[in-house]
User: Fold these one by one.
Assistant:
Number 1:
Amino acid sequence: MFEWFSKDENDAIHILTTDHDIVKQLFDQFEDADGPASKRRISRQAINELKVHAAIEEEIFYPALRQQIVEKDVMNEADEEHHVAKVLIAELDRMDGTEDHFDAKFTVLAENVRHHIMEEEGDMFPRARSLDIDFLKLGQQILRRKQQLKVIEGGKALRKRSAKPGSKRTSRAPRKRKAA
Ligand SMILES: [Fe+2]
């Protein structure tokens, strides 16, 4: 195994690398999926994972590295790769999966993220490991924030589904409550 990798599940870099493995698996599954329904399901899952992952890197991991100045170029490039991914994710979020370009757009997102992962694991993480950072403490912060974000993203996805025409509740109006 690589020197920068830790087997400790609470280690920040271990957590991020595990996220990478999950999204890479989802990208592979998307490529192998036959029908549009399974492609839609897999892409939705990958996008939710990516949203949470990008947020914890931007809010917690990158700032910790920047404090000790890991090559500015490396960090700036990571920011820009996140930016491109977010643009594609926002467009995919507005699609329902039946569009002509849906598969192509998701494939470009996957290519962009695979490249980003290669740079993080091949360059950023090994550099980070040599810094004076408590990666276990950082890992705890990441795990806490991840839980919060998963609840938020889960709620958003639920609202989106119930707002779709044909779903049981299309109106934003609250349900009527029975008098106590
Ligand atoms: Fe990452």
Number 2:
Amino acid sequence: MKLLNGEILSNEKYSDNLYKMGIFSPYICKNATAGQFINVKCSPEGVLDPLLRRPFSIFNIEKKFNVFSILYMVKGRGTQFISGLKSGDMLDFAGPMGDGIDLNGNENNILLIGGGIGIAPLYLIAKLAGEMKKNVFFAAGFKDNSYLRWGKDLIELKINYAVLTEDGSWGEKGLVSDYVWNNMESFKNFDIYCCGPRDMLKTLQNIYKDRNNKVTALLEERMACGIGVCAGCVIKLRKGKKGFSYKKVCKDGPAFSLGEVIFD
Ligand SMILES: Cc1cc2nc3c(=O)[nH]c(=O)nc-3n(C[C@H](O)[C@H](O)[C@H](O)COP(=O)(O)OP(=O)(O)OC[C@H]3O[C@@H](n4cnc5c(N)ncnc54)[C@H](O)[C@@H]3O)c2cc1C
Ligand code: FES
């Protein structure tokens, strides 16, 4: 992990609150992989308010151009600030952070299940798995069609996919977890990566409780230091039959076996 400054090459507005930012960084493109994230300073140079950096998953890496991107939702002050940055501005960030995902040990079939902005860390997994000639399926669920523009990124992956929206304005109407449940048999021999709202992850945990699939969840706990020092991102994991242990999402994750996560 390094403290870095990268030139912003684009900061494209996808919809009201959704943006994709492209950043020039040979270091990230060389050293980062799927599942990792960066910690971004969300204030002008010389200003330390807000003090805490904000974590964003590495959405895509284009090694050929030394460019990586983040896909982000404007939620509060930090994301509001970066949404106003323009191409040519510099982004102050630290990365790559967290453990990357090694797809080598995986099944040949990979299912990605993303809810809302949870699609962000899954995109690069899908891309790298596709490049390894694995059979990749992306199931993505949203409230409405505000992620429609992301559909173009999805098509570029040239993989199979299903899009669901709660209001039916894009793709099938319904919840992505229901889609997975209804298509359980088709995904019998798939290794699974999921990311999204807690309720979605809890539902998936129930669905896969007694099944043999290897299911990995990428967690997006709130973070403070981002480097394993403050214990601000601790989660509880099952250990053995009755025990449990604590892990830090920033240092030990963000990927964990879904079956082991205790959602209090
Ligand atoms: C490992 C990791 C990867 C992430 N990747 C992405 C990503 O790729 N794209 C993206 O848009 N967001 C991602 N997030 C969430 C992102 O970091 C927060 O949305 C961001 O920090 C909000 O900052 P803010 O200053 O705009 O909002 P704040 O003012 O800090 O908060 C505004 C609102 O957002 C809520 N919020 C803040 N952080 C989180 C969080 N981690 N999860 C859920 N709600 C939160 C707050 O409770 C509050 O209601 C990731 C988080 C983690 C931990
Ligand atoms: S954010 Fe400080 S330990 Fe994880």
